[in-house]
Amino acid sequence: MSRPNIQVYVAGPDVFAPHWDTFRQEITQYAVERGITPIFPKSEPDDGPADIYRCNTRLIRQADAVIANLQCFRGSEPDSGTVFEVGFATALGRPVWGFNATGLYHEKVAEHYGLSPDRAFPITCKAGYAVESFGQDLNLMLAIPLRLRATWQEALDEINSAESFQSAKPNSQE
């Protein structure tokens, strides 16, 4: 059974990519076929940063759920703006699905920054900081509250499932 009229905010660094227009068209078609209305972030370069922030947080408040591209962006971590949007949505109680976060977190850190031969902790980076190794694809503060899927299509298909959508509450570990 599908749930029509679910509004889903689409977060991610794709707004900066040359393929943004194509991606937006693909996700719109796929979502609408499933009774989902995608909401895309405002990203017009002529708008000031405060306007973009206010608009995007308003759009997240209007959304029923969020999907977020959590691929590594300019390093071993997801885009910081996307991470903020995920945290903001989670704080509002919106269910969040992440996608494109492949590979274990500590392996991504090692790939980008290298590991220290001095292992005071189980794993440390070259700067000497411990690198968490909990078997997650992301930092635990992202991995715990969201549902991680391989692709945006899988995320939208799961949202389209009424049962999955109803049960998708942030995984509180209080």
UniProtKB/TrEMBL annotation:
Stretches assigned to coiled coil: none
Keyword vocabulary terms for this entry: Transferase
Entries under Pfam families matching the protein: Nuc_deoxyrib_tr (PF05014)
Key word Transferase present: yes
InterPro entries tied to this protein: 2'-dNMP_N-hydrolase, Nucleoside_deoxyribTrfase
GO biological process: deoxyribonucleoside monophosphate catabolic process
GO molecular function, one term: transferase activity
Protein's recorded name: Nucleoside 2-deoxyribosyltransferase
Organism per entry: Acidiferrobacter thiooxydans
Organismal lineage: Bacteria, Pseudomonadati, Pseudomonadota, Gammaproteobacteria, Acidiferrobacterales
